[in-house]
């Protein structure tokens, strides 16, 4: 059974079609990277998989269930691009990670020992357990990004969807990030991630899907790194380095429940 199945999907915003006739299948345990230039539609593709952008045409299934009927969002962990510095919520690292347990336990049940253990385990996996009581605002961008993956891991998902997890992130955090993802994949987890450059994530990738102008232009082994972009110390700066103003991204489960 496939974890994600996209068939002939067309997606757009305000009547302008961005993705044209996209078909993509991700099998259980696969690690798939979605690559492509700025504006090619990578984020739109994963946002439509998560149900955050409505489909114009086509079908999407998650774990064999039509997305419109799918309710088991606790099985899906989403790591957005940035935590957002300006959220105005003075949360600690532990609190942010604990919010990843909400879909598992429901909002009105107090957190229990299993929740606390999952939070500690996830923070240990990303190398931030010693920062559990620190305000997230005191963390570097890379550490904040690691907090987001811990938040997703704490929910014990079967599928992790990550949007440019390592863009603008320091090398140490990228390595810690890759190690945490490697453990998740090693335990049978499925990963779909958007990336500009794979860097230390490269050895984890089973398949690369290159999106070009809203269509899948290539699928197969990840392309070889080329030119200075491939250097480990290449400092890639692009629009994603600017934190979004929206603050902590709401988990897809929360959004869908609100509809
Ligand atoms: N909420 C939105 N409303 C209207 N247009 C949007 C919206 N989000 C994205 N777009 C447009 O859709 C196109 C694809 O954007 P998308 O973010 O999916 O590309 P991307 O490949 O992820 O690019 P990047 O690498 O810059 O994130 C762009 O032309 C963008 O301007």
Helix content: 25-40%
Which stretches of 5+ consecutive residues score pLDDT under 50? 228-259
Name the CATH class. Answer: Alpha Beta
Beta-strand share of residues? 15-25%
* Secondary-structure element string: EEEHEEEHHHHEHEEEH
**Secondary-structure-derived class:** alpha/beta
Order of strands, widest sheet? 6-7-8-3-9-10
- How many domains, in number, for the residues? 1
User: Tally of extended strands?
Assistant: 10
Number of helices: 7
* Main sheet record: 6 strands, mixed
Shape: globular
- CATH homology superfamily name: P-loop containing nucleotide triphosphate hydrolases
Secondary-structure arrangement, i.e. CATH architecture: 3-Layer(aba) Sandwich
If you average the pLDDT, what whole number results? 82
Rg, alpha carbons: 17 Å
Would you tell me which CATH topology applies?
A: Rossmann fold
What compounds sit in this structure?
adenosine-5'-triphosphate
- N→C terminal distance: 28 Å
Describe the structure.
The chain has a 6-stranded mixed sheet with strand order 6-7-8-3-9-10, sandwiched between helices. Strands 2-1-4-5 form a 4-stranded antiparallel sheet, with helices on one face. The chain is globular and about 45 Å long. The chain has 7 helices and 10 strands. The C terminus is likely disordered. Strand 9 and strand 10 form a beta hairpin. The protein has a single domain, classed as 3-Layer(aba) Sandwich (Rossmann fold). The protein is α/β, with parallel strands linked by helices and 259 residues long. The longest helix has 16 residues. The chain binds adenosine-5'-triphosphate. Adenosine-5'-triphosphate binds next to helix 1.
């Amino acid at each position: 059974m496939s974890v994600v199945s996209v068939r002939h999907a067309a997606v757009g915003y305000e009547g302008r079609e961005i993705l044209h006739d996209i078909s993509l299948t991700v099998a259980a345990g696969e690690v798939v990277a979605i690559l492509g230039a700025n504006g090619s539609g990578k984020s739109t593709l994963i946002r439509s998989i998560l149900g955050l952008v409505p489909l114009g045409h086509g079908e999407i299934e998650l774990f064999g269930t039509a997305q419109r009927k799918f309710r088991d969002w606790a099985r899906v962990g989403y790591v957005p691009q940035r935590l957002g510095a300006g959220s105005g919520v003075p949360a600690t690292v532990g609190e942010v990670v604990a919010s990843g347990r909400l879909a598992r336990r429901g909002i009105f049940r107090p957190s229990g020992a299993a929740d606390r253990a999952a939070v500690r385990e996830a923070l240990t996996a990303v190398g931030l357990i010693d920062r559990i009581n620190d305000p997230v605002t005191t963390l570097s961008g890379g550490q904040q990004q690691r907090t987001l993956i811990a938040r997703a891991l704490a929910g014990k998902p079967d599928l992790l969807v990550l949007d440019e997890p390592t863009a603008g992130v320091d090398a140490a955090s990228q390595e810690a990030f890759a190690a945490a993802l490697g453990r998740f994949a090693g335990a049978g987890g499925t990963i779909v991630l958007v990336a500009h450059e794979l860097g230390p994530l490269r050895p984890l990738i089973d398949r690369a899907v290159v999106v070009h102008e809203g269509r899948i232009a290539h699928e197969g082994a990840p392309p070889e790194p080329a030119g200075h972009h491939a250097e480990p110390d290449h400092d890639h700066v692009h629009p994603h380095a600017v934190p979004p103003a929206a603050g902590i991204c709401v988990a897809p489960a929360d959004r869908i429940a609100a509809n």
